[in-house]
Design a protein that fits this description.
five-stranded mixed sheet, alpha/beta, D-Maltodextrin-Binding Protein, domain 2, 16 helices, single chain, about 325 residues
Length: about 325
């Protein structure tokens, strides 16, 4: 009897272990809308359906903090911007994007209604306090690239980290900054509340081409190459769930998307947030795939002002992989 009980307990233990969820730590730089497919996948239970136990950390200061956490080994998967993979390669670190969430910038430059900055006269930006999400973030790259393109330097302005969402809007409203480089929902909130106006808009393909000279991929899921090599099954499950969320978002309205989000995710009033999601829908990837030609754009932007990237030989083919997305697509078809 004792042997039978021991054997039964062992079998139960093995069965439980076989069905135990895979743990994965995922960190997000901010809840700006470029990263929206991640909380959508989480809220709809897609990660759980894949057998994942996800621990989430939100670094509201911006994507550069998430990158630091990934490099330090305190997170497994980052929800951050593609250009960080290029940045890391120039420093001898191998970080790889494996799902594209946002195929375009989503950034705007906003100012108060009475601002005297005129994008047609770039020199009028001199002396301004410009708010970004955080130093080393893509909003930081945006403003530095703008200055470089027009023969100006970062000494001509003051660049100040103000976070995203409500905190970024408050910084503009309170006069702590003169101009704001940020994403939705902040961009839409500024306009809807009458606090200011959009002066440069890179949310559309046309706007991105005017600012960067092409489409500028932004939010992705990325991990170190070592983690991907050691945990391919976890990466595949994360990819399956995230691609499922992208497909779901494509087939649902902004109102339906917002209805799935927890209340603490929604910045400002719900109706304004719904408008922000509607404004941002065009930037989202529909299938999670990377388009190689588009990746040349962030490389060109970084090379223009980032000394380490400018000096490095960058192999874009090693900054991303479509392998897991393609496998997720085959799985969905079968």
């Amino acid at each position: 009897m004792r042997k039978y009980l021991l054997a039964a307990a062992t079998a139960l233990s093995l069965t439980t272990a076989a069905h135990a969820a895979d743990s994965v730590r995922m960190s997000v730089g901010s809840y700006n809308l470029n990263n929206l497919p991640f909380p959508v996948a989480e809220s709809l239970g897609f990660y759980k359906e894949e057998g994942l136990d996800v621990t989430t950390e939100n670094f509201a200061q911006g994507g550069s903090k998430v990158l630091q956490a990934l490099v330090a080994g305190s997170t497994d998967v980052a929800v951050g911007f593609y250009d960080h993979t290029i940045q890391m390669q120039s420093q001898g670190k191998h970080v790889v994007g494996f799902v594209q969430l946002a195929r375009n910038s989503g950034l705007v430059l906003a100012g108060k209604n009475d601002t005297d900055f005129d994008p047609a006269k770039p020199e009028t930006i001199k002396g301004k306090n410009v708010g970004i999400t955080s130093p080393g973030s893509s909003s930081d790259f945006f403003i530095r690239y703008y200055l470089k393109q027009h023969g100006l330097t970062d000494n001509d302005i003051s660049i100040i980290g103000v976070g995203s969402g409500a905190a970024a809007v408050a910084a503009l409203q309170q006069g702590k900054i003169d101009l704001l480089v940020n994403y939705d929902p902040a961009a839409t909130i500024v306009v809807e509340r009458g606090l200011g106006k959009i002066l440069i808009d890179a949310r559309s393909d046309e706007g991105a081409k005017a600012v960067y000279g092409g489409i500028y991929p932004t939010s992705v899921l990325y991990a170190s190459q070592d983690y991907i090599n050691e945990h391919p099954e976890v990466i595949q499950k994360v990819t399956n769930a995230t691609v499922k969320a992208l497909h779901w978002m494509k087939d649902h309205s902004a109102e339906e998307i917002v209805a799935q989000l927890p209340d603490d995710f929604v910045s400002g009033d719900k109706q304004t947030y719904i408008k922000a999601v509607e404004n941002a829908k065009a930037i989202f990837s529909q299938d999670g795939r990377f388009t190689p030609a588009d990746l040349e754009v962030p490389l060109a932007v970084l090379r223009s002002f980032n000394e380490s990237v400018g000096k490095a030989t960058i192999d874009l083919n090693t900054t991303y992989t479509n392998k897991f997305v393609e496998a997720a697509g085959h799985s969905a078809e079968n």
